[in-house]
Each structure stands twice: as structure tokens, then as C-alpha cells.
């Protein structure tokens, strides 16, 4: 593992910890997404995203730090699932 990899890992986990909605556990995406113009499916602004991927990264962080705040963030992240 390179120093760049470690820096990217900690940068990503800092972002996740700082941007998680504390009530829902979500990371809200503030853009609307439209899919396949022939359907009516779209995601409205402020949709909840990436809980499984974020939880996975936070589990790895917790395994390195044993920080209880990281464990709480993991629990919040899996609530919407």
C-alpha cells in the first residue's frame, strides 16, 4: 500500500464522516437524475446514496482505529438499507 493510497483512504473516510446525515445515516445527493428518456423513472433532488459502499469503507476504518464514533457512523449508514 502506498502513501497515496493511505491518503486517499483517510480523505474519503473524513468526507464520509463529515457529510453523513446524522438522523438518517444517508449521504444525500443534491442533483436530480433522469434515466432513459422513454421511461418516467427519475430520482429527485436530495436522494440517499452509497450506504453499502460507505459502510464498507467505515468498517475498514473502524478495524484500524477502534474509534466508537466510527462504529456509530457504520450503524447509521446501514439504517436505510
Characterise the protein shown here.
With 81 residues, the chain is α+β, with helices and mostly antiparallel strands. The protein has a domain at 49-81. It is built from three helices and four strands, in the order H-E-E-E-E-H-H. It has a two-stranded antiparallel sheet with strand order 1-4. A two-stranded antiparallel sheet has the order 2-3. Strand 2 and strand 3 (42-43) form a beta hairpin. The longest helix has 17 residues, at 3-19. It starts with a helix and ends with a helix. The mean pLDDT is 87.
Question: Can you summarize this structure?
Answer:
By secondary structure, the chain is an alpha+beta fold. The protein is built from three helices and four strands.
Keywords:
two-stranded antiparallel ribbon; single chain; alpha+beta; 81 residues; 3 helices; 4 strands; globular
Overall pLDDT, averaged?
Answer: 87
- Category by helix and strand content: alpha+beta
Spell the H/E element sequence. HEEEEHH
Question: Roughly what fraction of the amino acids lie in strands?
Answer: 5-15%
Query: In what order do the strands lie side by side in the largest sheet?
Result: 1-4
Protein name: D-glucuronyl C5-epimerase C-terminal domain-containing protein
Organism: Adineta steineri
GO molecular function, one term: heparosan-N-sulfate-glucuronate 5-epimerase activity
List the topology elements.
Blueprint: H1 3-19, E1 27-29, E2 33-34, E3 42-43, E4 47-49, H2 51-65, H3 68-78
Helix pairs in contact: 1-2, 2-3
Organism: Adineta steineri
GO cellular component, one term: Golgi apparatus
GO molecular function: heparosan-N-sulfate-glucuronate 5-epimerase activity
Amino acid at each position: 500500500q502506498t502513501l497515496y493510497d493511505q491518503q486517499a483512504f483517510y480523505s474519503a473516510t473524513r468526507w464520509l464522516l463529515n457529510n453523513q446525515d446524522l438522523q438518517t445515516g444517508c449521504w444525500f445527493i443534491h442533483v436530480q437524475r433522469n434515466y432513459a428518456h422513454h421511461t418516467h423513472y427519475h430520482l429527485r433532488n436530495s436522494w440517499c446514496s452509497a450506504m453499502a459502499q460507505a459502510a464498507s469503507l467505515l468498517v475498514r476504518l473502524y478495524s484500524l482505529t477502534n474509534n466508537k464514533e466510527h462504529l456509530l457512523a457504520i450503524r447509521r449508514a446501514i439504517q436505510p438499507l
